[in-house]
Amino acid sequence: MPILESLIGPITRIIDKVIPDKEARDRAKLELLSLEADHELKQIEARLSAIVTEAQSPDPWTSRARPGFLYVMYLIILFAIPMGVIGAFNPATAHAIGKGMTSYLNALPEPLYALFGTGYLGYTAARQWGKVKGVD
């Protein structure tokens, strides 16, 4: 992608110098931009094809891995509700629980958070891709 982007500017300047007709010049520039958009779309399709293939796998461990991980993260987030109730009745206990959870979450390695973000975005992209293609 960087190679194509780096070529767009010089090619546009060449088009400006070579093609005297303003309408023909604009058509050539639009065609150049269209080629760039097609190239980017093909790259996105290539990236998402692996995700879609994995999501459609008949193996239940493969096809359910991302949603299962997301459900665990949702449960952790939803745990804030009972923590709020505990905090209303006993703020010291809620503070101690919160401090313990914060210490635990800070002890988790950074790559685990990166894995969660990648899995979440990949799953979301695969679901959207499936909806656009009419598969889901």
Can you describe this structure?
3% of the residues are buried. The protein is elongated and about 80 Å long. It has 136 residues and is mostly helical. It has helices at 2-18, 22-55, 60-63, 65-78, 80-89, 91-107, 110-133. The chain has seven helices and no strands. The protein starts with a helix and ends with a helix. Helix 1 (2-18) packs antiparallel against helix 2. The longest helix is centred in the first third of the chain and has 34 residues, at 22-55.
The amount of beta strand, in percent, is under 5%
Mean pLDDT: 76
Run of helices and strands: HHHHHHH
Task: State the helix count.
Answer: 7
Please summarize the sheet with the most strands. none
Structure keywords:
mainly alpha; 7 helices; 136 residues
In short:
This protein is an all-alpha fold and 136 residues long. The protein has helices at residues 2-18, 22-55, 60-63, 65-78, 80-89, 91-107, 110-133.
List the helices and strands and how they pair.
Elements: H1 2-18, H2 22-55, H3 60-63, H4 65-78, H5 80-89, H6 91-107, H7 110-133
Helix pairs in contact: 1-2, 2-7, 4-7, 5-6
